[in-house]
């Protein structure tokens, strides 16, 4: 059995590279007053006149398969599961959007799902962790951004796609140590504006979305949130990877806690979904542009002491579950079926963790993702982003011993909570 961790690793590896060393040094700067959050880069301000729709969003990232082993293929995705599918990831090479040959084939296959669900939107997601240099080179001036925008238009037209999602991780962040006056943050806003202007000029209702960081220290440096708010349809916030094992953070913790726990204060109290959402609201992101990221993967740890399995306990490395600490949901549920595995749902953070001897894993369950979807609904946010379809139980392994196999149980739970079932479903139930 081979599971697909590669996409997850690509996405998250930059977090690992940056690690807490960066967080901590940024914090030091923030608290010592050296790193000021810039106010709005006041260089342009145009109203966006296109009528941006406000339907509920369930945007799902789908990592394109390579030719290796058993993987999730487009034909196995229920066309009604997500409202939007983001094909991950295209790269920026020589200022142009670049996809590999097999990725083009995947896009063609994925778009066939629209025959069954014409409302389904398929977007290309550009970037991901480790792909920042292509962006840096491309945003630098108007002429190079123009080359990029032209290449986007060609792909959107030729493959009948619905839009693009920009996932630059992260503007300015590589320059943090130098503290020189880079203009990447401003150039990113300009890129968004120019793409929106081009859509308007062409009278196309293509979508423009971005995937953005959760930690406040990165947000302050990387984004002019009000400018982003002006030009995008909605924002996918990567509200996960708040805690995972690194040698700088050798402690257990939750991948994606919804709320803080009473024992957490100051910096620790900011590492949760609720804090991040309120931070973006305070920085001027509209409620109906906030799409909250929900992970289908968890993070595993090896406890130093099996007798101390609490949250925040010392850890000596990744757990044996998953790959480099990244655990897909089916691996979690199959492990939970073993004897002597304790599963505890934290009532404050609203997420579960499991342990058995020295194995400790933070994960999301059908219950915890439902809590997050309820939070999204209660706070009248736009919807949920899921990372990723590949890490959910797309083969129904978790329910294979019952008569009612459920495919994609986590995404299903999110969808059912956010989008009221159709009358037909209600009658059938
Ligand atoms: C969510 O965040 C807001 C703003 O920071 C805070 O006032 C509220 O108490 C938080 N909710 C919970 C349940 O922690
Ligand atoms: C599955 O269905 C069979 C036949 O309808 C029934 O006898 C059995 O108890 C069911 N098993 C479970 C786990 O529900």
List the helices and strands and how they pair.
Blueprint: H1 6-31, E1 57-63, E2 84-93, E3 96-98, H2 101-111, E4 121-127, H3 132-139, H4 142-158, E5 163-167, H5 184-202, E6 207-212, H6 216-222, H7 225-231, E7 234-237, H8 273-282, E8 290-295, E9 297-303, E10 315-317, E11 326-328, H9 329-336, E12 342-346, E13 351-356, E14 359-362, H10 366-378, E15 383-387, H11 409-418, H12 423-428
Helix pairs in contact: 4-5, 5-7, 10-11
Low-confidence region ranges: 1-24, 26-40, 42-52, 422-429
CATH class group: Alpha Beta
Question: Ligands bound here?
Answer: 2-acetamido-2-deoxy-beta-D-glucopyranose
H-E string: HEEEHEHHEHEHHEHEEEEHEEEHEHH
Number of strands: 15
Percentage of helical residues?
Answer: 25-40%
CATH architecture, please? Alpha-Beta Barrel
Count up the helices.
Answer: 12
Mass-distribution shape: globular
- Mean pLDDT, to the nearest integer, reads 87
Q: So, the CATH homologous superfamily?
A: Glycosidases
Task: Bin the strand percentage.
Answer: 15-25%
| Widest sheet, order of strands | 1-2-4-5-6-7-8-15
């Amino acid at each position: 059995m081979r599971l697909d961790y590669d996409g997850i690793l690509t996405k998250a590896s930059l977090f690992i590279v940056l690690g807490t060393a960066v967080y901590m040094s940024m914090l030091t700067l923030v608290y010592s007053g050296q790193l000021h959050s810039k106010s709005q880069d006041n260089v342009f301000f145009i109203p966006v006149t296109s009528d941006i729709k406000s339907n509920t969003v369930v945007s799902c990232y789908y990592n394109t398969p390579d030719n290796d082993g058993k993987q999730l293929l487009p034909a196995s995705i229920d066309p009604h599961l997500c409202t939007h599918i983001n094909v991950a990831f295209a790269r920026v090479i020589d200022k142009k959007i670049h996809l590999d040959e097999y990725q083009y084939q995947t896009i063609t296959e994925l778009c066939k799902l629209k025959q069954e669900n014409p409302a389904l939107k398929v977007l290309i997601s550009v970037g991901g962790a480790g792909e920042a240099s292509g962006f840096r080179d491309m945003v630098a001036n108007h002429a190079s951004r123009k080359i990029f925008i032209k290449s986007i238009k060609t792909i959107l037209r030729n493959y009948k796609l619905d839009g693009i999602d920009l996932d630059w991780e992260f503007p300015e962040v590589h320059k943090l140590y130098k503290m020189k006056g880079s203009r990447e943050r401003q150039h990113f806003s300009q890129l968004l504006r120019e793409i929106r202007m081009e859509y308007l000029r062409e009278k196309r209702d293509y979508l423009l979305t971005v995937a953005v960081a959760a930690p406040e220290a990165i947000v302050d440096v990387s984004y002019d949130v009000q400018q982003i708010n002006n030009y995008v349809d909605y924002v996918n916030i990567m509200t996960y990877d708040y805690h995972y094992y690194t040698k700088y953070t050798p402690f257990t913790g939750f991948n994606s806690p919804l709320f803080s726990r009473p024992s957490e204060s100051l910096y620790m109290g900011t590492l949760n979904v609720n804090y991040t959402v309120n931070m973006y609201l305070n920085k001027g992101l509209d409620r109906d542009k906030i799409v909250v990221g929900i992970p289908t993967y968890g993070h595993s740890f090896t406890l130093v002491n099996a007798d101390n399995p609490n949250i925040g306990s010392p850890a000596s490395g990744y757990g044996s579950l998953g790959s480099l600490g990244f655990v897909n949901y089916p691996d979690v549920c199959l492990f939970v079926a073993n004897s002597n595995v304790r599963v505890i749902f934290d009532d404050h953070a609203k997420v579960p963790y499991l342990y058995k001897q020295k194995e400790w894993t933070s994960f999301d369950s059908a219950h915890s993702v439902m809590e997050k979807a309820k939070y999204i609904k209660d706070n009248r946010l736009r919807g949920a982003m899921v990372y990723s379809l590949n890490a959910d139980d797309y083969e129904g392994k978790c329910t294979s011993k019952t008569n009612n196999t459920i495919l994609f149980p986590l995404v299903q739970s999110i969808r059912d909570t956010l989008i009221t079932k159709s009358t037909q479903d209600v009658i059938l139930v």
